Amino acid sequence: MKNFKTESKRVLDLMVNSIYTHKEIFLRELISNCSDAIDKLYYKSLQENIGLSRADFDIKIKSDKEKRTLTISDNGIGMTAEELENNLGTIAKSGSLAFKSTQEKKEDIDIIGQFGVGFYSVFMVADKVEVVSKAYGEEKANMWVSSGTEGYEIKNAEKETNGTDIIIYIKADTDDDNYSEYLEYYKQRELIKRYSDYIRYPIKIENEVPVSSSENEKDGSDKKIETKKEWETINSMIPLWKKSKSEITDEDYNKFYKDMFYDFDDPFMHQHISAEGAVEYKALLYIPKKCPEAYFSKYFERGLKLYSNGVLIMEKCKDLIPEYFGFVQGLVDCELSLNISREMVQHDRGLQRIATNIEKQIRKELQDMLANDREKYVEFYKNFGLQLKVGIYNNWGMDKDKLQDLIMFYSVKQDKLVTFKEYIEAMPEDQKYVYYATGSSILSIKKMPQAEKVLKSGYDVLCMTDNVDEFAIKYIGSYNAKEFKNVTDGNTGIENATEEVSDEDKPILEFIKQSLAGEVFDVRLSKKLDEHPVCLSSEGEVSLEMEKVFRNMPNTGDGTNDLRAKKILEINAEHKVYEKIKSLYQSNQDELKEIAQILLDQAKLIEGLPIEDIDKFVSLTAKHISD
Ligand code: ADP
Ligand code: MG
Questions:
Q1: CA 116 to centroid of ligand 1, rounded, Å
Q2: Residue-level pLDDT at 345
């Protein structure tokens, strides 16, 4: 017996026990090797006019449950004794990489192997492995045998045709691992579908099938159903994304999406990218019709499938897609210089470039849609606008430049969704701010006295009805040098919003302010109120709407919960209530204090804010009703 070369023993041990997190990938690795071996022979045939076609090749998988063996065979180029020695006797030596680097027309080859370690993953599930191989054009066949770290042997063997049989002696089951599963048809099928569906040669499993259902039925039910063995091709072989766009119909794209991402609906749209140049990759991206329900929960996992040369490397590679486009489904196929386990690709620089490129492509597609097919964009926005706005809010607005032109809000004046750009283009010249109002619905915003005042001045108001809206707006700050202004802001910049305070009014307002000390920041007279006796506005960073959101957030003890707006109680100067206030100020200041409290609480109710002391409010109103 020969020992593995140099440090191979230790490397092998490391490999088998720590590089791969899923034992099942051994099948992927061996099948990839078969595919490489076939590619090599096919390539040779092209060059030397041997006359073999792709249809002449296949990869076969056969189980023997009694002997606990799994045999994987290919009719590819095979290995000579020397090649068995070199390629399998030396860990981290890749015959495939060497092959590839000596070929001229590299683009024709889909060779997967490059590290020379994949083969050894078989020892995660095997006690012993026999590799029987006959190189193309050679007379003799040879066998390489090994039981793992100890070493290997090479001896003569019998094999009629060129190619390689890998006979795996599956380990006995343990408490943790059900190795027997790998001998089962359903498991093999599942793994091939998952990892090797786009290997371009047929992967066949020998499966037992009923001889013919009609014959079996005739014989009566107590008879054992007769079966025969048949080779069944499992993989779909052709990766849709590698075909040219002109060959693919919308139906093909949709069907592929539904099969691959288990959706019942057709996707909202697809994008097929074939990038060449500095970053080379192919991608098939889909925006679903509806946002997944769990999108904002911790159970949602974003990510694109990552393939390298048609072989699945990662089910959900989240580094390929930014959080704000997390609803995009799809896959990327590229030739990565993967690190050896093919699993730990996250920090790969090539991958980062692809991710940047993909983000740009998605954004461009959306921007084009907005420009050229507005109706479609609005439909998209109704489904995913919230995700984009949350995207601005997250990362403290770091991505705002990328997203702010994709955001829309309902405009009261234009009666439709508009972008910031469109809002600003429609602005009268004297308008300083982009006005917005927050509320639970467009209808309730339209009824807001503060919004009414802005609209009456000839300015449009954007309606913000999602909790995240105002927070996102705060991060955007301004658009084209126009600042955003909440209509409830104490200083909306609209003239005459607050009354000129006369000498008569001044002490009255001051008195009310004192009696509501701690609850209000200021008390003012207002003209912007039609019917309402009072309303609230705010000044500073935290708006009334934000206070509501903060109050509704889970209390994590960091103080966010207690953030309050600086409230301004605005009193309608033309309302009868103000007459009463003026007379009470002269005649009964104790009663005025109580009235002030009632008015503040009313203003809070109008705004949808909670009243601090409900008992007090009830008893005060009752008292003044019965007076
Ligand atoms: P890699 O595929 O990254 O090169 P592996 O450890 O999977 O590394 O395989 C090592 C080498 O063994 C391959 O490069 C190839 O030369 C050879 N080899 C493995 N399996 C086969 C096979 N079925 N037919 C022919 N050669 C094979
Ligand atoms: Mg390999």
A1: 7
A2: 53
Supply the mean pLDDT for the chain: 88
Residue with the nearest Cα to atom 2 of ligand 1?
113
Ligand 1 atom having least distance to the Cα of 33: 20
| Ligand 1 pocket: which of 39, 43, 44, 94 to mutate (most atoms within 8 A of CB) | 94
Give the DSSP letter of residue 180.
Answer: G
Least confidently predicted of 3-7, 396-400, 413-417, 455-459? 3-7
Q: Calculate the CA 153 to chain-centre distance.
A: 48
Give the tokens for residue 211.
Answer: 């001889």
d(CA 322, CA 318): 8
Show the beta-strand stretches assigned E in 160-251: 163-170, 203-210, 227-233
Q: Among 24-28, 94-98, 256-260, where is mean pLDDT lowest?
A: 94-98
Q: Are 104 and 48 in contact (CB under 8 A)?
A: no
Instruction: Convert the pLDDT of each residue in 516-543 to its tens digit.
Output: 998 999 999 987 677 789 989 888 888 8
pTM, full prediction: 0.72
Q: Which residues line ligand 1 (CB under 6 A)?
A: 29, 33-34, 37, 74, 76-79, 87-88, 94-97, 113-119, 164
The answer to whether 179 touches 172, Cβ cutoff 8 Å, is yes
Contact between 196 and 58 (Cβ < 8 Å) = no
Structural domains in the chain, sorted by start? 6-215+223-233 (3.30.565.10), 246-372 (3.30.230.80), 376-486 (3.40.50.11260), 505-626 (1.20.120.790)
Q: What's the gap in Å between 537 CA and the centre of ligand 2?
A: 68
Average pLDDT for residues 548-558, to the nearest whole number? 83
Between the CA of 113 and the centroid of ligand 2 the distance, in Å, is: 4
Tokens of 269: 């749209």
CA 268 to ligand 1 centroid distance, Å = 42
